[in-house]
Amino acid sequence: MPNTTLDHPDLIEDEGLLFACTLDGEGGARFLGWDDIDKWTNTDGPLWMHMDHKHPRVVDWVKKQSGLTTTTTDALLAEETRPRVFRGRRGLVTILRGVNLNESADGEDMVAIRLWSEGERVITLRHERLHTPRNILVQLIELNTGPKTAPELFERLISRINDNIADTILTLEEQLGDLEGDLDISKAAIQRRDLSHIRQKAVALRRYIAPQREALGTLVSEPPSWMDDHSRAQLRETSDRLMRYLEELDAVRERAMVVKDDIANQLSEASNKTLYVLAIISAIFLPLAFLTGLLGINIGGMPGVENPYAFWIFCAVMIVCLIIEVYIFRKLKWL
């Protein structure tokens, strides 16, 4: 889904409250502020609060006014998180990682989002900006095509967060495909560096996607009672897609190893060819070097010392030797 920005006069971040709204049950929503949240009841419609989990007022509200247990609030406000799902006394906590689509950020630096719901409210907290909540808010406020119930909102948040992973994996596959189609030993150092970068990205993505797949597997196998059949089916599809993403990441890593081996083989082959040529040259000139060394000794009795044609005769002998060596090497298929 393309990233969309929302320009609305009622969308004002207020003391850690990035936005809050109530769903109208028809795909739209109405903005709320802190005062409206304090007065909210079930009869006002499903409530969605999206907050910065580090802001002091948000921390105070989650701990004292949200009605959540200490275990749940600790999980929602934790600094370091891994993808997981667990049931609190009143609702379900889901902690996931989404692709970092912020400017100048690497996609594999995945951003945590914390979700809680009991079927009437959906509370989401983040530390770094995530595009998914804003995109869903655009559907609610501008397009009136957003989720109609809290379970549907809960499911759509999870699905959209995981959908963005596919684009990052596709980018890695395209980069790897470009490397595979343009292997050149003259650019081996650059290509090996790019290949290492791709592998590091794949490893970083897999580190979060694997536990995320397990977390969603738990949610699919033991869905909360308030989640409707459609949302359960969609979560099952999301879980299956995550499994496919893991398989694609494994394939990227394996392809990267194959490309690395290809580069190493090409470098080895080029080195062997060079060594082979040097060996042939050495073999050709070894007899000639022996002859010149033998006749270059400075002692009496050397043949041809008094003959004015001895040097040219010796050159002719070496040429004949060279021709014979080349002939023998060709017969042996060394050349």
TrEMBL record:
Keywords: Cell inner membrane, Cell membrane, Ion transport, Membrane, Transmembrane, Transmembrane helix, Transport, Zinc. It is a multi-pass membrane protein. The chain crosses the membrane at residues 275-297, 309-329. It is found in: Cell membrane. Its main location: membrane. The keyword Protein transport does not apply. The keyword Cell wall biogenesis/degradation does not apply. InterPro entries: CorA_cytoplasmic_dom, CorA_TM1_TM2, MgTranspt_CorA/ZnTranspt_ZntB. It comes from the Bacteria. Belongs to the CorA metal ion transporter (MIT) (TC 1.A.35) family. This is Zinc transporter ZntB.
